[in-house]
Amino acid sequence: MNEYNSKLHQTADTVDSKSVIQKLTIQSEPNAKLTISNANNVIVEQKEHLKFNLIDDMGKGYQILIKDWDKPANFDAIWTNLSKLTYKDRKINKVIMHFSGIGDNWSTTLANNLYYGFSSFNGPKNIKFEWFYEDGTKVNFERSTAYLAVASLNTYLQKNHWGHERTTVILGGKALALYGSSVSIHNGNELYSGKANSIDADGLSRATSGPGEPDQNTIKNFFPNQKDITEPNIPYRWDTANSSDRYYGAGLIALDGSDLTIKVDVKTDDAPIGVTKNTGQWFNMGTVIPETPGIIPPTIHYHHTNVALGLEINLIS
């Protein structure tokens, strides 16, 4: 048992998939309906064949574009007709995300299927979540019973593509690191990978591709110390929809209360002078907490001894 706990090296901010109690379930919702309302200073356009990771077809949705770059933009995204979203086995049939932000070419694209989330470009998105049961009452999440897995946090550290995709928890939850993931906690509430975790030091785009030939153009944009700023042993295709290695780019948000507020953006303040900064990311949330390979709980044996005053159960490790 001590060896198992040591392997996990859990802290208050790091957990593994087997150590949390998950009562919230989000699954694919192909029949969900998405409505955009309370739109201010934005253009709303319908889109088809969304591919937030440039590979998987995620169906239809909406693209939201800012009108006046110098003024704040906001809108509400409302998902209804949900059939597979539950908390403590009670059905949730409506989710609202209140978006706000400002910036040049500020935009976001949302999938009708809540499971696939949204993409964000050009500027931070402040988002407040609200969840509702079928009778219209708001869901109030009890601490340590509901978790969102933010599972597509890429970091690119090249001359032509620099940025850490980041999710920051503002209110209504706690950021947690997932054991074995490249994503860690920064400043107490920020989730992102400090090192490159998508393209390896040999020039292979591992996050969405399998083994192949290195991309020479990518290598031309490497820094002399590229190996030092890149995660080793990046799993192939970890950022695809059905990968068993999604843990590698995932962080967790432990929900607490009825309203969650987060900020989604790309951290580029550490970018060297002259590089091209990344401005986009896919915010992909789920409730199936990805399992880290190699974490096997020990078999627990119980020795039962009848004694005069009752039954003594001794744990044998």
From TrEMBL:
Residues 78-284 form the Glucan-binding protein C/Surface antigen I/II V-domain domain. Transmembrane segments: none annotated. InterPro entries: Glucan-bd_C/Surface_Ag-I/II_V, SA_I/II_PAC_V_sf. It holds the Pfam family GbpC. This is GbpC/Spa domain-containing protein. It comes from Ligilactobacillus salivarius. The lineage of its organism: Bacteria, Bacillati, Bacillota, Bacilli, Lactobacillales.
